[in-house]
Design brief:
By secondary structure, the chain is mainly α. Helix content is 63%, strand content 3%.
Amino acid sequence: METVKQRVLTTDAALQTDLDTMWLCLGAILVFFMQTGFAMLEVGTVNKKNTSNILLKNVLDASVGSIVWWLTGYGIALGGAIDSYGFIGSTHFALNTDDFAGQGYSYGMWLFQWAFAATTATIVSGAVAERCTFTAYITYSVCLTGFVYPVVVCWGWNTQGWASAWKSVDDDANPLLFGCGVIDFAGSGVVHMTGGVAALVGSAFLKPRKARQPVTGGPLLTLPSDYAPEYGPIFQTLGTLILWMGWYGFNGVSTLYIVNYGLVAAKTMVTTTLSAGTGAVTTLFIGSLMQGKVDGAYVLKLGDANNGVLAGLVAITAPCSTCEPYGAFIIGFGAAFVYLGSNALLTACKIDDVVSAIPVHGFCGFYGVIMASLFATKDNYAAAYYSDRAKDCAGVLYGGDGSSLAAAICFLLAVIVWVAALSCVVFGALSGMGMLRVDPTVEDDGMDKSEHGVTGGYAAAATTAGGAEMVEKDAGSNL
Protein backbone atom coordinates (compact mmCIF):
# COMPACT_ATOMS: atom_id res chain seq x y z
CA MET A 1 0.00 0.00 0.00
CA GLU A 2 2.86 2.36 0.84
CA THR A 3 4.46 1.68 -2.55
CA VAL A 4 1.22 2.58 -4.34
CA LYS A 5 0.98 5.80 -2.34
CA GLN A 6 4.55 6.74 -3.20
CA ARG A 7 3.89 6.10 -6.88
CA VAL A 8 0.80 8.31 -6.77
CA LEU A 9 2.75 11.13 -5.11
CA THR A 10 5.58 10.75 -7.60
CA THR A 11 3.17 10.84 -10.55
CA ASP A 12 1.39 13.89 -9.13
CA ALA A 13 4.69 15.76 -8.70
CA ALA A 14 5.78 14.82 -12.23
CA LEU A 15 2.44 15.99 -13.64
CA GLN A 16 2.78 19.35 -11.88
CA THR A 17 6.28 19.76 -13.32
CA ASP A 18 5.04 18.90 -16.80
CA LEU A 19 2.21 21.42 -16.52
CA ASP A 20 4.60 24.13 -15.37
CA THR A 21 6.99 23.24 -18.20
CA MET A 22 4.23 23.51 -20.80
CA TRP A 23 3.16 26.83 -19.24
CA LEU A 24 6.67 28.19 -19.88
CA CYS A 25 6.73 26.81 -23.43
CA LEU A 26 3.35 28.41 -24.17
CA GLY A 27 4.64 31.72 -22.81
CA ALA A 28 7.79 31.44 -24.94
CA ILE A 29 5.67 30.95 -28.06
CA LEU A 30 3.55 34.01 -27.27
CA VAL A 31 6.56 36.21 -26.49
CA PHE A 32 8.39 34.97 -29.59
CA PHE A 33 5.32 35.82 -31.69
CA MET A 34 5.83 39.41 -30.53
CA GLN A 35 8.73 39.49 -33.01
CA THR A 36 6.06 39.41 -35.71
CA GLY A 37 4.38 42.38 -34.08
CA PHE A 38 7.62 44.35 -33.97
CA ALA A 39 8.29 43.48 -37.61
CA MET A 40 4.84 44.66 -38.74
CA LEU A 41 5.06 47.83 -36.66
CA GLU A 42 8.48 48.72 -38.05
CA VAL A 43 7.77 47.85 -41.69
CA GLY A 44 4.71 50.08 -41.51
CA THR A 45 6.82 52.97 -40.25
CA VAL A 46 10.00 52.95 -42.36
CA ASN A 47 10.21 54.11 -45.97
CA LYS A 48 9.47 51.46 -48.58
CA LYS A 49 13.10 51.47 -49.76
CA ASN A 50 14.18 50.04 -46.38
CA THR A 51 11.59 47.25 -46.13
CA SER A 52 13.87 44.24 -46.62
CA ASN A 53 16.49 45.70 -44.33
CA ILE A 54 14.23 46.14 -41.33
CA LEU A 55 12.55 42.76 -41.84
CA LEU A 56 15.90 40.96 -42.04
CA LYS A 57 16.99 42.61 -38.80
CA ASN A 58 13.84 41.32 -37.10
CA VAL A 59 14.59 37.80 -38.30
CA LEU A 60 18.18 38.06 -37.08
CA ASP A 61 17.18 39.47 -33.69
CA ALA A 62 15.74 36.04 -32.93
CA SER A 63 18.26 34.01 -34.93
CA VAL A 64 21.51 35.59 -33.75
CA GLY A 65 19.96 36.01 -30.32
CA SER A 66 19.32 32.28 -30.01
CA ILE A 67 22.99 31.44 -30.63
CA VAL A 68 24.37 34.14 -28.35
CA TRP A 69 21.81 33.34 -25.62
CA TRP A 70 22.82 29.68 -25.84
CA LEU A 71 26.56 30.35 -25.63
CA THR A 72 26.76 33.07 -22.96
CA GLY A 73 23.52 34.94 -22.33
CA TYR A 74 21.57 32.45 -20.24
CA GLY A 75 24.56 31.52 -18.09
CA ILE A 76 25.35 35.16 -17.30
CA ALA A 77 21.68 35.91 -16.63
CA LEU A 78 20.51 32.96 -14.54
CA GLY A 79 23.59 30.91 -13.71
CA GLY A 80 25.07 30.73 -10.23
CA ALA A 81 25.99 34.25 -9.09
CA ILE A 82 26.79 33.87 -5.41
CA ASP A 83 30.55 34.13 -6.00
CA SER A 84 30.13 37.45 -7.82
CA TYR A 85 27.89 38.88 -5.09
CA GLY A 86 24.92 38.75 -7.41
CA PHE A 87 26.55 40.66 -10.27
CA ILE A 88 26.98 38.00 -12.98
CA GLY A 89 26.14 34.31 -13.44
CA SER A 90 28.89 31.75 -13.98
CA THR A 91 27.17 28.44 -14.81
CA HIS A 92 24.66 27.04 -17.33
CA PHE A 93 26.62 28.10 -20.40
CA ALA A 94 25.84 26.44 -23.76
CA LEU A 95 23.09 24.28 -22.19
CA ASN A 96 25.63 22.28 -20.25
CA THR A 97 23.97 18.95 -19.40
CA ASP A 98 25.64 18.85 -15.99
CA ASP A 99 23.83 22.08 -15.08
CA PHE A 100 20.50 21.28 -16.72
CA ALA A 101 20.45 17.59 -15.70
CA GLY A 102 17.96 16.81 -18.47
CA GLN A 103 15.10 18.59 -16.69
CA GLY A 104 12.29 19.65 -19.00
CA TYR A 105 11.45 22.65 -16.84
CA SER A 106 15.00 23.97 -17.14
CA TYR A 107 14.81 23.83 -20.92
CA GLY A 108 11.43 25.54 -20.82
CA MET A 109 12.96 28.33 -18.74
CA TRP A 110 15.80 28.73 -21.24
CA LEU A 111 13.31 29.05 -24.11
CA PHE A 112 11.12 31.54 -22.26
CA GLN A 113 14.05 33.75 -21.32
CA TRP A 114 15.50 33.64 -24.85
CA ALA A 115 12.26 35.12 -26.19
CA PHE A 116 12.68 38.02 -23.76
CA ALA A 117 16.28 38.58 -24.86
CA ALA A 118 15.23 38.79 -28.51
CA THR A 119 12.70 41.46 -27.56
CA THR A 120 15.40 43.66 -26.04
CA ALA A 121 17.47 43.63 -29.24
CA THR A 122 14.42 44.42 -31.38
CA ILE A 123 13.68 47.55 -29.33
CA VAL A 124 17.04 48.99 -30.41
CA SER A 125 16.83 47.97 -34.07
CA GLY A 126 13.54 49.83 -34.49
CA ALA A 127 14.86 53.06 -33.00
CA VAL A 128 18.03 53.22 -35.13
CA ALA A 129 16.46 52.02 -38.37
CA GLU A 130 17.13 53.49 -41.83
CA ARG A 131 20.67 54.75 -41.20
CA CYS A 132 22.54 52.12 -39.15
CA THR A 133 24.95 49.83 -41.02
CA PHE A 134 24.38 46.10 -40.99
CA THR A 135 27.82 45.58 -39.42
CA ALA A 136 26.92 47.91 -36.57
CA TYR A 137 23.58 46.17 -36.12
CA ILE A 138 25.19 42.74 -35.77
CA THR A 139 27.81 44.11 -33.38
CA TYR A 140 25.46 45.83 -30.95
CA SER A 141 22.93 42.99 -31.15
CA VAL A 142 25.54 40.42 -30.11
CA CYS A 143 26.89 42.63 -27.32
CA LEU A 144 23.43 43.45 -25.99
CA THR A 145 22.02 39.92 -26.11
CA GLY A 146 25.19 38.17 -25.03
CA PHE A 147 26.42 40.40 -22.21
CA VAL A 148 24.78 43.76 -21.46
CA TYR A 149 21.20 42.54 -21.08
CA PRO A 150 22.04 39.22 -19.33
CA VAL A 151 23.87 41.09 -16.57
CA VAL A 152 20.75 43.19 -15.93
CA VAL A 153 18.67 39.99 -15.82
CA CYS A 154 21.06 38.59 -13.23
CA TRP A 155 20.63 41.67 -11.08
CA GLY A 156 16.85 41.78 -11.22
CA TRP A 157 15.64 38.19 -11.69
CA ASN A 158 18.34 35.72 -10.69
CA THR A 159 17.57 34.26 -7.25
CA GLN A 160 21.12 35.28 -6.32
CA GLY A 161 21.05 38.70 -8.03
CA TRP A 162 21.97 41.65 -5.86
CA ALA A 163 18.72 43.54 -6.58
CA SER A 164 16.38 40.57 -7.03
CA ALA A 165 13.12 40.21 -5.10
CA TRP A 166 12.99 36.50 -6.00
CA LYS A 167 15.33 35.51 -3.17
CA SER A 168 13.52 33.33 -0.66
CA VAL A 169 15.80 34.28 2.23
CA ASP A 170 17.76 37.33 3.33
CA ASP A 171 21.19 36.37 4.67
CA ASP A 172 24.65 37.85 4.85
CA ALA A 173 25.92 35.79 1.90
CA ASN A 174 23.08 36.88 -0.37
CA PRO A 175 21.29 39.88 1.16
CA LEU A 176 18.08 41.41 -0.17
CA LEU A 177 18.42 44.97 -1.44
CA PHE A 178 16.87 47.12 1.33
CA GLY A 179 15.32 43.91 2.67
CA CYS A 180 12.96 43.65 -0.33
CA GLY A 181 14.63 43.76 -3.72
CA VAL A 182 13.15 45.46 -6.78
CA ILE A 183 9.57 44.68 -7.83
CA ASP A 184 9.96 44.18 -11.58
CA PHE A 185 7.76 41.16 -12.16
CA ALA A 186 7.95 40.86 -15.96
CA GLY A 187 10.57 43.42 -16.95
CA SER A 188 9.59 47.10 -17.24
CA GLY A 189 13.15 47.82 -16.18
CA VAL A 190 15.01 44.59 -16.88
CA VAL A 191 13.81 44.27 -20.48
CA HIS A 192 12.20 47.49 -21.69
CA MET A 193 14.27 50.18 -20.03
CA THR A 194 17.43 48.27 -20.92
CA GLY A 195 16.42 48.30 -24.58
CA GLY A 196 15.26 51.92 -24.34
CA VAL A 197 18.54 53.18 -22.87
CA ALA A 198 20.58 51.33 -25.49
CA ALA A 199 18.30 52.77 -28.18
CA LEU A 200 18.79 56.29 -26.81
CA VAL A 201 22.57 56.00 -26.91
CA GLY A 202 22.51 54.48 -30.38
CA SER A 203 20.20 57.17 -31.74
CA ALA A 204 22.35 59.91 -30.23
CA PHE A 205 25.51 58.57 -31.86
CA LEU A 206 23.81 57.95 -35.21
CA LYS A 207 22.24 61.41 -35.45
CA PRO A 208 18.87 61.98 -37.18
CA ARG A 209 17.89 60.71 -40.59
CA LYS A 210 18.33 63.17 -43.44
CA ALA A 211 14.58 63.10 -44.01
CA ARG A 212 14.00 64.48 -40.51
CA GLN A 213 17.00 66.82 -40.33
CA PRO A 214 17.92 68.05 -43.83
CA VAL A 215 20.26 70.66 -42.36
CA THR A 216 22.88 69.34 -39.95
CA GLY A 217 22.18 70.65 -36.47
CA GLY A 218 18.81 72.05 -37.51
CA PRO A 219 15.44 71.22 -35.94
CA LEU A 220 13.73 67.89 -36.53
CA LEU A 221 11.07 68.15 -39.20
CA THR A 222 7.83 66.23 -39.40
CA LEU A 223 8.09 63.52 -42.03
CA PRO A 224 5.99 64.10 -45.17
CA SER A 225 2.68 62.27 -45.30
CA ASP A 226 3.90 59.99 -48.10
CA TYR A 227 7.15 58.98 -46.36
CA ALA A 228 5.78 55.76 -44.90
CA PRO A 229 4.21 53.35 -47.39
CA GLU A 230 0.49 53.60 -48.12
CA TYR A 231 -0.05 50.35 -46.25
CA GLY A 232 1.75 51.78 -43.19
CA PRO A 233 -1.30 52.26 -40.93
CA ILE A 234 -2.42 48.69 -41.59
CA PHE A 235 0.87 47.15 -40.55
CA GLN A 236 1.39 49.54 -37.64
CA THR A 237 -1.98 48.60 -36.17
CA LEU A 238 -1.58 44.90 -36.92
CA GLY A 239 1.80 44.98 -35.20
CA THR A 240 0.39 46.75 -32.16
CA LEU A 241 -2.42 44.23 -31.73
CA ILE A 242 -0.02 41.30 -32.15
CA LEU A 243 2.22 42.79 -29.49
CA TRP A 244 -0.77 43.23 -27.17
CA MET A 245 -1.64 39.56 -27.60
CA GLY A 246 1.94 38.45 -27.02
CA TRP A 247 2.07 40.55 -23.86
CA TYR A 248 -0.24 38.06 -22.14
CA GLY A 249 2.62 35.61 -22.38
CA PHE A 250 5.15 38.29 -21.46
CA ASN A 251 3.36 39.26 -18.24
CA GLY A 252 1.02 36.38 -17.42
CA VAL A 253 3.52 33.56 -17.85
CA SER A 254 6.13 35.42 -15.81
CA THR A 255 4.59 33.61 -12.84
CA LEU A 256 6.95 30.85 -14.16
CA TYR A 257 4.51 28.28 -12.77
CA ILE A 258 0.81 27.64 -13.33
CA VAL A 259 0.13 24.98 -10.69
CA ASN A 260 -1.14 26.93 -7.64
CA TYR A 261 -0.53 30.21 -9.50
CA GLY A 262 -3.70 30.39 -11.59
CA LEU A 263 -5.08 33.36 -9.65
CA VAL A 264 -1.89 35.37 -10.01
CA ALA A 265 -1.63 34.61 -13.73
CA ALA A 266 -5.26 35.49 -14.48
CA LYS A 267 -5.19 38.70 -12.44
CA THR A 268 -1.93 39.68 -14.13
CA MET A 269 -3.56 39.38 -17.54
CA VAL A 270 -6.49 41.50 -16.37
CA THR A 271 -4.25 44.33 -15.12
CA THR A 272 -2.29 44.10 -18.37
CA THR A 273 -5.50 44.56 -20.36
CA LEU A 274 -6.72 47.54 -18.33
CA SER A 275 -3.45 49.43 -18.49
CA ALA A 276 -3.14 48.92 -22.26
CA GLY A 277 -6.70 50.06 -22.94
CA THR A 278 -6.42 53.07 -20.66
CA GLY A 279 -3.10 54.05 -22.18
CA ALA A 280 -4.57 53.96 -25.68
CA VAL A 281 -7.65 56.04 -24.92
CA THR A 282 -5.79 58.60 -22.83
CA THR A 283 -2.97 59.07 -25.34
CA LEU A 284 -5.46 59.39 -28.19
CA PHE A 285 -7.39 62.26 -26.65
CA ILE A 286 -4.58 64.01 -24.76
CA GLY A 287 -2.44 63.84 -27.89
CA SER A 288 -5.22 65.47 -29.86
CA LEU A 289 -5.55 68.27 -27.31
CA MET A 290 -1.79 68.83 -27.26
CA GLN A 291 -1.71 69.18 -31.04
CA GLY A 292 -4.59 71.61 -31.09
CA LYS A 293 -7.12 72.15 -33.82
CA VAL A 294 -6.29 71.45 -37.44
CA ASP A 295 -8.45 73.33 -39.92
CA GLY A 296 -10.81 74.22 -37.08
CA ALA A 297 -11.22 70.71 -35.67
CA TYR A 298 -9.37 68.34 -33.34
CA VAL A 299 -7.76 65.33 -34.99
CA LEU A 300 -7.59 61.83 -33.50
CA LYS A 301 -4.41 60.07 -34.64
CA LEU A 302 -4.14 56.32 -35.06
CA GLY A 303 -0.46 56.49 -34.13
CA ASP A 304 -1.30 57.99 -30.75
CA ALA A 305 -3.70 55.15 -29.96
CA ASN A 306 -1.19 52.49 -31.02
CA ASN A 307 1.68 53.97 -29.04
CA GLY A 308 -0.66 54.51 -26.10
CA VAL A 309 -1.38 50.78 -26.05
CA LEU A 310 2.34 50.02 -25.97
CA ALA A 311 3.04 52.67 -23.34
CA GLY A 312 0.38 51.17 -21.07
CA LEU A 313 1.71 47.66 -21.65
CA VAL A 314 5.31 48.60 -20.84
CA ALA A 315 4.27 50.54 -17.74
CA ILE A 316 2.23 47.66 -16.30
CA THR A 317 4.90 45.03 -16.95
CA ALA A 318 6.62 45.58 -13.59
CA PRO A 319 3.54 45.97 -11.33
CA CYS A 320 1.20 43.63 -13.25
CA SER A 321 1.08 40.93 -10.55
CA THR A 322 1.10 43.13 -7.48
CA CYS A 323 -1.37 45.93 -8.24
CA GLU A 324 -5.15 45.92 -8.21
CA PRO A 325 -7.22 46.49 -11.38
CA TYR A 326 -7.97 50.10 -10.42
CA GLY A 327 -4.23 50.57 -9.90
CA ALA A 328 -3.65 49.32 -13.43
CA PHE A 329 -6.12 51.92 -14.70
CA ILE A 330 -4.20 54.70 -12.93
CA ILE A 331 -0.84 53.37 -14.15
CA GLY A 332 -2.07 53.20 -17.75
CA PHE A 333 -3.48 56.72 -17.48
CA GLY A 334 -0.15 58.08 -16.26
CA ALA A 335 1.77 56.16 -18.93
CA ALA A 336 0.07 58.26 -21.61
CA PHE A 337 1.53 61.46 -20.18
CA VAL A 338 4.96 59.86 -19.75
CA TYR A 339 4.94 58.80 -23.40
CA LEU A 340 3.69 62.11 -24.79
CA GLY A 341 6.02 64.18 -22.62
CA SER A 342 9.14 62.12 -23.35
CA ASN A 343 8.35 62.04 -27.05
CA ALA A 344 8.21 65.84 -27.10
CA LEU A 345 11.45 65.96 -25.09
CA LEU A 346 13.28 63.79 -27.63
CA THR A 347 12.15 66.04 -30.47
CA ALA A 348 13.39 69.08 -28.59
CA CYS A 349 16.74 67.33 -28.02
CA LYS A 350 16.92 66.40 -31.74
CA ILE A 351 16.92 62.65 -31.10
CA ASP A 352 15.45 60.80 -34.07
CA ASP A 353 13.70 57.62 -32.91
CA VAL A 354 12.03 55.93 -35.89
CA VAL A 355 9.39 53.93 -33.97
CA SER A 356 9.20 55.91 -30.69
CA ALA A 357 10.96 53.06 -28.91
CA ILE A 358 12.73 55.31 -26.42
CA PRO A 359 9.58 56.99 -25.02
CA VAL A 360 7.59 53.75 -25.03
CA HIS A 361 10.20 51.36 -23.67
CA GLY A 362 12.79 53.55 -21.98
CA PHE A 363 10.73 56.21 -20.21
CA CYS A 364 7.63 54.11 -19.62
CA GLY A 365 9.82 51.24 -18.43
CA PHE A 366 11.36 53.52 -15.78
CA TYR A 367 7.92 54.75 -14.82
CA GLY A 368 6.58 51.20 -14.52
CA VAL A 369 9.20 50.11 -11.98
CA ILE A 370 8.48 53.16 -9.82
CA MET A 371 4.73 52.46 -10.02
CA ALA A 372 5.31 48.89 -8.84
CA SER A 373 6.90 50.21 -5.67
CA LEU A 374 3.87 52.44 -5.06
CA PHE A 375 0.89 50.26 -6.02
CA ALA A 376 1.88 46.81 -4.74
CA THR A 377 -0.72 45.59 -2.21
CA LYS A 378 0.26 43.31 0.64
CA ASP A 379 -1.95 40.43 -0.51
CA ASN A 380 -0.80 40.62 -4.11
CA TYR A 381 2.85 40.85 -3.10
CA ALA A 382 2.40 37.80 -0.87
CA ALA A 383 0.81 35.83 -3.72
CA ALA A 384 3.36 36.82 -6.36
CA TYR A 385 6.51 36.87 -4.22
CA TYR A 386 6.79 35.95 -0.51
CA SER A 387 4.27 36.44 2.27
CA ASP A 388 6.76 36.77 5.12
CA ARG A 389 7.96 40.19 3.95
CA ALA A 390 4.77 41.48 2.29
CA LYS A 391 4.03 43.93 5.12
CA ASP A 392 7.31 45.82 4.70
CA CYS A 393 7.74 45.36 0.93
CA ALA A 394 4.26 46.40 -0.13
CA GLY A 395 3.92 49.64 -2.06
CA VAL A 396 4.24 52.95 -0.31
CA LEU A 397 0.55 53.63 -0.94
CA TYR A 398 -0.44 50.39 0.81
CA GLY A 399 1.48 50.59 4.06
CA GLY A 400 4.93 49.52 2.93
CA ASP A 401 7.93 51.00 4.70
CA GLY A 402 9.46 52.44 1.51
CA SER A 403 12.07 49.72 1.07
CA SER A 404 10.65 48.67 -2.29
CA LEU A 405 10.79 52.27 -3.53
CA ALA A 406 14.40 52.62 -2.38
CA ALA A 407 15.28 49.33 -4.11
CA ALA A 408 13.55 50.49 -7.29
CA ILE A 409 15.46 53.77 -7.44
CA CYS A 410 18.78 52.06 -6.74
CA PHE A 411 18.16 49.39 -9.37
CA LEU A 412 17.00 51.85 -12.03
CA LEU A 413 20.02 54.09 -11.58
CA ALA A 414 22.36 51.10 -11.75
CA VAL A 415 20.75 49.84 -14.96
CA ILE A 416 20.90 53.26 -16.61
CA VAL A 417 24.60 53.66 -15.79
CA TRP A 418 25.47 50.10 -16.82
CA VAL A 419 23.59 50.05 -20.12
CA ALA A 420 24.46 53.62 -21.10
CA ALA A 421 28.17 53.15 -20.35
CA LEU A 422 28.53 49.92 -22.32
CA SER A 423 26.36 51.22 -25.14
CA CYS A 424 28.59 54.28 -25.39
CA VAL A 425 31.60 51.98 -25.71
CA VAL A 426 30.00 49.89 -28.46
CA PHE A 427 28.39 52.68 -30.49
CA GLY A 428 31.30 55.05 -29.86
CA ALA A 429 33.83 52.51 -31.12
CA LEU A 430 31.75 51.79 -34.22
CA SER A 431 31.37 55.51 -34.89
CA GLY A 432 35.09 56.13 -34.43
CA MET A 433 35.90 53.42 -36.97
CA GLY A 434 33.38 54.82 -39.46
CA MET A 435 31.27 51.67 -39.26
CA LEU A 436 28.15 53.02 -37.56
CA ARG A 437 26.20 55.06 -40.10
CA VAL A 438 25.64 54.31 -43.76
CA ASP A 439 26.96 56.60 -46.47
CA PRO A 440 24.60 59.48 -47.40
CA THR A 441 24.10 58.05 -50.88
CA VAL A 442 23.12 54.71 -49.37
CA GLU A 443 20.61 56.45 -47.14
CA ASP A 444 19.17 58.29 -50.15
CA ASP A 445 18.94 55.18 -52.33
CA GLY A 446 17.65 52.97 -49.54
CA MET A 447 19.34 50.15 -47.67
CA ASP A 448 17.42 47.48 -49.58
CA LYS A 449 19.39 48.35 -52.71
CA SER A 450 22.83 48.74 -51.15
CA GLU A 451 22.83 45.86 -48.68
CA HIS A 452 20.27 43.36 -49.95
CA GLY A 453 20.38 43.59 -53.73
CA VAL A 454 16.86 44.94 -54.23
CA THR A 455 17.47 47.21 -57.20
CA GLY A 456 13.98 48.20 -58.24
CA GLY A 457 11.85 48.09 -55.13
CA TYR A 458 8.78 45.88 -55.48
CA ALA A 459 6.91 45.16 -58.67
CA ALA A 460 3.91 43.13 -59.73
CA ALA A 461 4.37 39.74 -61.38
CA ALA A 462 1.61 37.81 -63.09
CA THR A 463 0.25 34.75 -61.30
CA THR A 464 -1.36 31.67 -62.76
CA ALA A 465 -4.74 33.02 -61.71
CA GLY A 466 -4.24 36.14 -63.75
CA GLY A 467 -3.76 38.37 -60.71
CA ALA A 468 -0.56 39.85 -59.38
CA GLU A 469 1.81 39.10 -56.55
CA MET A 470 4.51 41.33 -55.08
CA VAL A 471 8.07 40.13 -55.65
CA GLU A 472 11.45 41.64 -54.91
CA LYS A 473 13.50 42.93 -57.82
CA ASP A 474 16.84 41.37 -57.00
CA ALA A 475 20.11 42.44 -58.55
CA GLY A 476 20.37 41.02 -62.04
CA SER A 477 16.65 40.29 -62.22
CA ASN A 478 14.72 40.99 -65.41
CA LEU A 479 11.58 41.89 -63.45
